[in-house]
């Protein structure tokens, strides 16, 4: 029986499917749900937070865009959860997605972590894929990997 579920969301179709699967499990088990979106700063090596004191105009514009995108993705997750009648707490992190997901899972004491098998954020950066493998390899509790629909070819 799961009491606390963490789901990684990235705005992709597979991320939406992972959230829907999470909400179904949470309803059935009356579990709390936490959604996390991690802004993958490794994709933008010049944007490590400790090196942005102060960021130049272009770096700040990119940081602002990534921050807005993360807020939109998490707001969408909250709306989907509310429509399903499941309370959801949103979390935004910056850094390595797999490591940040695992750190938050430990902080929350999540007994189930849900990730998509792969995904792609709206600004064209990969969020899941190697991330799902990382989560599976480093998790201390159960992991559910939601796969996409098979190709119809």
From TrEMBL:
<dbReference type="InterPro" id="IPR006016">
    <property type="entry name" value="UspA"/>
</dbReference>
<protein>
    <submittedName>
        <fullName>Universal stress protein UspA</fullName>
    </submittedName>
</protein>
<dbReference type="InterPro" id="IPR014729">
    <property type="entry name" value="Rossmann-like_a/b/a_fold"/>
</dbReference>
<dbReference type="InterPro" id="IPR006015">
    <property type="entry name" value="Universal_stress_UspA"/>
</dbReference>
<comment type="similarity">
    <text>Belongs to the universal stress protein A family.</text>
</comment>
<dbReference type="Pfam" id="PF00582">
    <property type="entry name" value="Usp"/>
</dbReference>
<feature type="domain" description="UspA">
    <location>
        <begin position="1"/>
        <end position="147"/>
    </location>
</feature>
